């Protein structure tokens, strides 16, 4: 990713023998400079601006039947940089842990030494605006400080730093140069989910079994019957903590994933994902969150993923186990399914694709003759970009140029629209015939019917085309 800095040019030097021209000095506030008049003009301008904004907000409230907050957020858009720019990469991996409070003899909560009740690893892919989640059962066998024990002990013994090392090593993730495995961590205490669910007015959860359990020491009281139940924050929290059934921890993990899906769906359906609500909800949950995400990073992620389809956020899996065993240090632990773990981690690190695709009628509304393409070879395979150009030209697209990409390391073809014409990127993907290709969100709104789309041809295109153009059709690929 190239970055540039535009600066004003330095002042030109005076001709030889000529003294430098004296620059005019700003007024000193003395005679002739009436600050009262200036202040009057400034206040007047601000009042006029406020009046214009108020008028636009009022019009939108009446004409569009919007609330005041939504009308205000639409009238005063706040620039939020995309996460690609904030993190300087196209994807990040988060370690997400939920910790439970311990309670003393007087029933007062404390979190020191608390184990991670929930362990999840999230891959956030920015070009596709999709997420993959892997849950790790808290009783899974792992080596922590030289002991054969449960993986959730890592956080209790060494906080997020040791948890990063243990979970990352357990999954076999590639380490960063500093030795860490994850880009960021998020630790949520038990009240985080409770207050978040209350903030959005509760959630409707389909309960499939009778749940009756009381634990005064753990402040856990669960009494549910089968059926659709509207849960407040405490009930949703209790529902995700329950594990006293035949399935135990694996089913508890599934319930946690189920509640995440329900929350995301409600956020989308009831318009809790505008800028005003996002700020409020982030404030609620951050009271119970420890993270090394900065506020700007949080804001960028929340704003970027607010329009993502829930179906693209629902890729959730749990690493299962094949057996149990007794350990001297931690009692019974779960022996993970090594083959399944390898498969899930490979999918987590591999290409991401959107789950939902627009209907054929929507794609048909895009006319190839109005779409201008810049095709770049990112595969390192000579002639592949030329083959893509030939294929799309025959279908009526206008190819402006064929060139090499910034690198030949693209395994997955990327389609990057630079105009917000609906479904233009999806139409190009469909005609290109590479189902694994990712479509990035539009970068800006180009006026008029002309659409510009950049296609970076990855190695996956070689399997989708029967014949490549000669190497001379594209600049040599230096692989």
Named CATH architecture of the largest domain: 3-Layer(aba) Sandwich
Shape descriptor reads: globular
Radius of gyration, Cα only, in angstroms? 28 Å
Residue share in helices? 25-40%
Count the DSSP helices: 13
Quick recap of the structure?
The chain has 479 residues and is α/β, with parallel strands linked by helices.
Structure description:
Helices cover 33% and strands 23% of the residues. It is an alpha/beta fold and 479 residues long. The protein has three domains: 31 residues; 267 residues, Aminopeptidase (3-Layer(aba) Sandwich); 114 residues, 2-Layer Sandwich (Alpha-Beta Plaits). The strands form seven sheets. A six-stranded mixed β-sheet has the order 13-8-1-4-5-14, sandwiched between helices. Helix 5 runs antiparallel to helix 8, helix 6 packs antiparallel against helix 7 and helix 8 crosses helix 9. It is globular.
Outline the secondary-structure elements.
Elements: H1 35-63, H2 68-75, H3 83-87, E1 91-99, E2 102-103, E3 109-110, E4 116-125, E5 130-136, E6 141-144, E7 147-150, H4 153-171, E8 184-189, H5 190-199, E9 203-207, E10 211-215, E11 220-224, E12 227-231, H6 233-241, H7 249-269, H8 275-286, E13 289-291, H9 295-304, E14 315-319, E15 321-327, E16 331-336, H10 338-349, H11 360-364, E17 371-377, H12 384-394, E18 398-404, E19 414-417, H13 424-432, E20 438-439, E21 451-457
Parallel strand pairs: 1-8, 5-14, 17-18, 17-21, 19-20
Antiparallel strand pairs: 1-4, 2-3, 4-5, 6-7, 8-13, 9-12, 10-11, 15-16, 19-21
Helix pairs in contact: 1-2, 5-6, 5-8, 6-7, 8-9
